[in-house]
Structure formats: C-alpha cells, structure tokens
Amino acid sequence: MNRTTLTALAALTLAAALTACSSSDSTSSKPAADAPPYKITRQDKSGNQRQVTVEVTSTKDLRAVFDDVTAKLTDDAGWFVEINCSTGGTAGADNRLANGKKAVGNIGAASTGLDDGKTEYEANEGRSCPA
C-alpha cells in the first residue's frame, strides 16, 4: 500500500473509533428541546427487565417525557418506565402519572411482549401534578 492509502485508512479508523465512543449516556436526564424538565431518580443498569423511574413537576407533555427517556435506552433489555409527580406521593405509593415500556433486542421483546424497538405508553387518568 502507498502512503496516501495508509493515511486514509488510519483516518477512517480513527473517525470510526471516535464515533463509537461518542454515544450518548442513557442515564442523562437532560430533556430534549420539546420535552418538559424531568429527573430520572432510578435506572437499573443490568438485567433482562429494567426499571426507570422519572419525576416531573407537571402533567404537561408526559408523552414527550416518555419519548425522550426511551430514546436514550439502548441496552438489550425490557425497559419499564414509571413517570411520577414529584409531589403527592407517600412512603407506600407514588403519585404515578404514567407507565410505559420499551423493547430493545430479542431479550427486550421477550420481556415486554413488544416487538424490538417498539414502545407502549399509558397515562393514568385523573391524576394531577402538583398534587
């Protein structure tokens, strides 16, 4: 190989390595521009079924919060998302506003009953936030 070819291959390899290392952190709770503020208070790091608990201060755009959270879940697993109001809960029960799930990979599909990459979201009617 000539020097130009080796240089081009080295540049491509470096670019691929940098791209692979720059993936977003799925534990980040910084919302996308269209999602209202939220805070991830729990996110399991291992297992076939993983839970993510999110707190919000309003019922505004809960679906956008769910979509933003699930977009960052990329590990093969069945993800179960709980969205709670930051107020109105008790030690025994959260003020649950919505539930959802996402399947990532075959493990996620088996764990959730959804096809790989699919989500399911359901808001709890009659709930308010702040409580």
TrEMBL record:
Bias (Basic and acidic residues): 115-125
Keyword set includes Signal: yes
Entries under PROSITE patterns matching the protein: PROKAR_LIPOPROTEIN
Keywords: Signal
Endpoints of the signal sequence: 1-22
Region (Disordered): 23-51, 109-131
Compositional bias segments (type: Low complexity): 23-35
Superkingdom of source: Bacteria
Protein name per its UniProtKB record: Uncharacterized protein
